[in-house]
Amino acid sequence: MNVFQTLGLEAHLLQAITDLGFETPSEVQEKTIPTLLSKECDLVALAQTGTGKTAAFGFPMLQKINIESRTTQGLILSPTRELCLQITNEIKLYGKYCKGLNVTAIYGGASITDQAKNVKRGAQIIVATPGRMKDMINRRLVDISKIDYAVLDEADEMLNMGFFEDIKSILSHTPEEKSTWLFSATMPKEVSIIAKKFMSNPTEITVGHKNIGSKNVSHEFYLVGSRDRYPALKRLADANPNIFAVIFCRTKRDTQKVAEKLIEDGYNAGALHGDLSQNQRDLVMKSFRNKQIQMLVATDVAARGIDVDDITHVINYQLPDEIETYTHRSGRTGRAGKTGLSMVIITKSEQRKIKSIEKMIQKQFVKKEIPQGMEICEVQLKALAHKIHETEINHKIDNYLEEINALFENASKEDLIKKFFSVEFTRFYNYYDKAKNLNAPKGNDNFSEKNETDNSARFFINIGKKDGYDWMRLKDFLRDSLELGQDAVFKVDVKDSFSFFNTETVHMPKVLEFFSDFKQNGRYINVEITEKQDRSRQRRKGKRRNDSQKSRGNFSKGRKQRSSDFKKGSGHSRPRRNRRR
Ligand code: ADP
Ligand code: MG
User: Fold this and answer.
1) Closest CA to 304 of 56, 93, 110, 78
2) CATH no., domain 217-372
3) Which pLDDT tens digit goes with each residue over 68-113?
4) How far is the CA of 433 from the centre of ligand 1 (A)?
């Protein structure tokens, strides 16, 4: 028995629900659907993403409109084109047994005449982004003067994106006596203003922190140096050969940069952000849905509410500015009863944010270590073995086997297996052999253990007053360049042509690494540890420098090696090998 049957929906809608495989209504559906079916009212519903809000308003709307009429009766406004298309498709599925139903999507970046034509054919429901909708109203290409239902979906996001005036203008073309249903994940002031301004005595429904997916999502964080974010991301990807992930960055620029780097490094990645043309965004989303893209690098706005099945990982390349956003991000995975993993890459100074997020999501993060190179080699090797084990034999190769068999006539099965796997393993091995540990050193790491009374290091730097620095400027410069916290640089002493400063010993490798190749106004800036250091530390300093240089060398060597591998290797690029399906 379908529990949806108790909500008051008609048989053909229940059939569609069964077809979709929904078994039990989510909390927001359970609360909203009977309310909207039983009376004409305004409604404000607050629920996290992934709680099934589309069905919560979609089914009542489908039941209440008159499909026989060609008049536009329902208008759904949503913040982005992707969401607009997603809602349109979803509502079409809900209404698959509504004969004559026409749901039309209206959004920028596509032919306005085509959209107008669709509306003209008699769209009972229009799903629109505010900008294009306003445009079409002004050109008299749509008529929403007779609608009965207006839905503001993801209202908080629409307001965030500055659509207040557009929404106001659009609603001014709708009749007074319609019902307005507002759906939002959060209730900032702007949303309550909208609710007051455009709704009368709305019924309020709040669904706690429950998220269809959330209980299925685990949360992990990885602590790295600020310059190791990208290598850390790569390791996480390599350690999860079947990854199908959304990677969130804070800015459009970073989103583009990270995606480009991943592509350059041979991954199946794509960028999704507001600076791309609609056409580009469509293509990226299409490839992602088809799983041709394994890692979608996105901004929060562009990925808001996007519902793609089977996302295995959400990776927070950087934490969002507002912690509430974290819920939206992690809600991209762990949907439809599947489990998902939300990973956060952070630096020391961001650790506090994890605590606040834990409070908000009422779940604990697990602190994990970025896998070491050899662990990754092992994972990749095993993944390959399983893949081969499950591969069906393509008997088309039988014709060519004679020559190949001859070549391996004297090889034992054991050797053959070893050779075969070495093809792939060596590639990863060369790349990761001696790769450095990316995990940020623990508070009191080896650098200070021998010298616990003084766990700061004093540095010499070859810039001073002559270069326009005073102690404050130099402190700011160092802190910003090194991305260190407020008080991480101290005892700054600026002389004419050079200066001294201290940092905690933990930051020593980072400082040396950063200034190992840093130019300002065409001049190399050098930093050295001052002579006061004891000998053992001096020795370690030398070692450390070598180490970091070596591993950097390896890194780029590995990369080159990989790309030349691709060229040589019979047309197989890493992406294809790693492709999920
Ligand atoms: P929201 O708008 O709250 O972010 P969506 O409406 O996009 O959530 O729904 C999220 C996903 O959950 C969609 O894939 C949808 O098909 C699915 N879904 C919705 N309701 C149910 C349900 N009752 N049971 C199972 N899956 C559901
Ligand atoms: Mg939604």
Assistant:
1) 78
2) 3.40.50.300
3) 999 999 999 999 888 999 999 999 999 999 999 999 999 998 899 9
4) 44
